[in-house]
Amino acid sequence: METSALKTPIVYPTGAERWILVITAISCAILELLDTTIVNVALREISGSVGATTTEIAWVVTAYAISNVIIIPLTSMLSDFFGRRNYFTGSVIIFTIASLMCGLSSNLWTLVFWRFVQGLGGGGLLSTAQSIIIGAFPPEKISVANAIFGMGLILGPTFGPTLGGYITDNFSWHWVFFVNIPIGIVATILSYTYVTDRPGAVRPKKIDWWGIIFLIVAIGSIQFVLEEGTSEDWFESHEIVAMTIIGIAGLIAFIIRELSVKHPAVNIRLYANYNMVMGAIMNFLLGLMLFGTVFIFPLFVQISLGWTATQTGTFMIPGALCTAFAMPLVAQLLGRGMNPKAVIMMGITMTFTFVFMLSFSSPDSSEWNFYLPFALRGFGMAFMMSPILTLAVGGLNPKDIPQAIGLSNMIRQLGGSVGIALINLYLSDQNALVRGNMVAYINQYSDTVTERIQMLSQNYISKGFSSVDAEMMANQTMDNLMTKQQMLVSYDHGFLMVAGLILICVPITLLIRYKKGTKAVAADH
Question: How far is 64 from 119, CA to CA, in rounded Å?
């Protein structure tokens, strides 16, 4: 089968057909990533509408994340089984119908169910879109293909909150889901017309059901622990402990199963490739930085600096445009034969500088203080993402590339969840620590504190309050001021922690093996 596939020359789409194919694939990938973050802004309105508590409403995000992470590594096998065109078009249809049903949901659990289904459709779009884009270009242009896909990877999560905020403020939360429907319909028609099956694809003779079951148990449980851990107080909760044990047991069973069958659901033997392992670690850290910083920054500016949701969302756009501008530049550098490790190092330096600058924020920081760091983030992410994708699949057999893509996407999503969980944990810990340190300075023996409280009391008395009420309100105002300062210091520490994590990428990058000849990686044909 393999040899006959190699004898026939591969025909790449050209001109308009190639670009229609690429635009269809990238818009589907952006749709899927947009929906990861677009709902976050609307959660408050949704919880009011369906009568859910803050903890319950988080399931709208969790359900999507869990089904996404489960389906992503299976996409290679499913697309070979059903045929790439059918599987991709089917995923778009499932995603579009689920979006309609999410918008029509009137109670929480119906919405959570349809979000889970939407994630199953969306996860299928992400990796298949990437293999379609890579397959649309000859091997020597792989860096162009990766740059286009990388652009989608960054634009999706960044534009989500902006679009979500705008829709929620001006329409209703239902439109956060309905907005997918016209795009979904157009994408369905285009993908059925232009997407082709993967040349040389071999339909698996039988489906490895046990492998799929173990994967669902392992990844589903791990994702559940990461999403719910913070609200359940981690291992103080029996539920989290049980899910952790189930997750680890499922993972061990999954690895044993996949290594012992001839046609595994997920070909984890690919990790015998050294660069694939290094690429996985880098992808994990990339997810942690990409999703972690998108998560922490809006909270920081809204809580500590008093920005509105729309203001926060709009601010994120210029940084994302820097990425869009930098991606073709990176493709050119790699195309000219520049060492990808040097490009990644430049990216690490820029991303580190971005987070390090944020860790010096003060109550007086304005939007202008953040434009330069976010421009650096935009360039830094672009310089890291495309070479990591290229290096991780370098030297692999062409037929293994879709599977490698699925695995690297899953690891990036898991990295994002670990990043958000870590930051949450670190922030709550820092809040207690910083508050404890600050409270020690606020007492009746400090002249500055006494003067400030007297000044505030006089202010309230002059407004007509009794002296007892004025003193209570003055103390409350002091407490509020301190809480704001304490949150700001905690976020600064949080940014510093992320900066430290970014530095882990340096030794890993140096460990990646790169031979001059691997510049043109075998594309997915």
Answer: 5
Q: Which amino acid is at 49?
A: S
Q: What is the pLDDT of residues 217-269, one digit of tens each?
A: 888 888 788 777 777 777 788 888 898 999 999 989 988 888 888 778 777 78
Contact at 8 Å (CB) between 152 and 327? no
Q: What integer pLDDT is reported at residue 525 of this predicted model? A: 35
pLDDT band (50, 70, 90) for residue 524? very low
Give the integer Cα–Cα distance in Å for 385 and 344.
8
Query: Residue 479: how many CB atoms within 10 A of its CB?
Result: 12
Mean pLDDT of 326-345: 84
- Rounded CA-CA distance 24/84 in Å is 14
* Number of CB atoms found within 10 A of residue 114's CB: 23
51 in the Ramachandran plot: left (φ > 0), alpha (ψ -120 to 50) or beta? left
The answer to whether the beta carbons of residues 491 and 293 sit under 8 Å apart is no
- The Cα diameter of the chain in Å comes to 92
DSSP string, 7-69: HSPPPPP-HHHHHHHHHHHHHHHHHHHHHHHTTGGGHHHHHHHHT--HHHHTHHHHHHHHHHH
Report pTM.
Answer: 0.75
**C-alpha span between 330 and 131 (Å, rounded):** 20
Give how far Cα 103 sits from Cα of 94, 96, 98, 99, 291, Å. Answer: 14, 11, 9, 6, 25
Show the CA angle centred on residue 390, arms to residues 388 and 393, nearest 5°: 105
Residue 362 has a pLDDT of 80
